[in-house]
Each structure stands twice: as C-alpha cells, then as structure tokens.
Design a protein that fits this description.
It is built from five helices and five strands, in the order βαβαβαβαβα. By secondary structure, it is α/β, with parallel strands linked by helices. Bound molecules: magnesium ion. It comes from Croceivirga radicis.
Length: about 130
C-alpha cells in the first residue's frame, strides 16, 4: 500500500519505518511533517491508499487538516486513521464527527506499538482500496 504518514515527530517517523520494514508485504510510506505539507503532497495528485494522521502538530494540526480533507470533493474518500497519544474524548468525538476510518492510541512500549501498527496494516490490506 501507499501510505501517507502525517507526523511532526522524527522519532515517531523512525518508529513507523522500523515497524513497517519488518512486515513481509512491502509498503511505501510517504512522510509529511504537518497538515500543510500533507495537503501540498495530496494536491500534487499522487494519492495514497490510506492516511495515518497525528493530531498534535505545529502549523496545521490533525483536526484542522481532517476538516479540510473531508471538505474536498476528491480527497474526502481517502481512508484516514488517527494515530495519536491523545486519549482526549473530545478529540475522539470530533474526529469521528468529521469522518475518520479509525482512531489508534500509540502505546508507549515499542513492542505494543509495532503490534498495533501491524494489525492496522493487515486490516487495510484486506480492504478494497480506492486506487485514486
Ligand atoms: Mg505530534
């Protein structure tokens, strides 16, 4: 799958790359440091199969990005999964209200993180993807 990973923290990007590199299926991870950078990538026309989105980011945060995405005639169909440390119920409700395909809390332990990411990828691999 082609995955757009929107995350401002370099350590988190390394964690994602490390986890994905262990999977038997190969995936392409495109990184964006914030919502603004992600929108530029998407407007370039190269659409991913799924998006993993952090909430706490400078410039344009995850919820602001999500609102713009879901208002766009073409981009609104991209399955977007929140990947965050925020257990804030207001964030959770707001994201589901705007429209998300999942909300995953990042576990603190790396092994648990890898396990959750693996299961998320396996779930999306069995889905019919839009292939924009
Ligand atoms: Mg962050």
């Amino acid at each position: 799958m082609k995955v757009l990973f929107i995350e401002d923290d370099m350590i988190e990007c390394m964690k994602m790359q490390r986890a994905v590199s262990k999977f038997t299926t190969k995936h392409q991870i495109i990184e964006a440091k914030n919502g603004e950078e992600a929108l530029n990538i998407l407007k370039g026309g190269d659409l991913p199969d799924i998006i993993f989105l952090d909430l706490n980011m400078p410039r344009m945060n995850g919820i602001e990005f999500l609102a713009i995405l879901k208002n766009d005639e073409k981009l609104r169909y991209l399955p977007t999964i929140i990947l965050t440390t925020s257990e804030n119920r207001t964030d959770l409700l707001e994201c589901f209200k705007i429209g998300i395909a999942g909300y995953i809390i990042k576990p603190l332990k790396y092994e648990d993180y890898e396990d959750k990411i693996k299961r998320a990828f396996q779930y999306w691999e069995i889905n019919e993807l839009i292939k924009g």
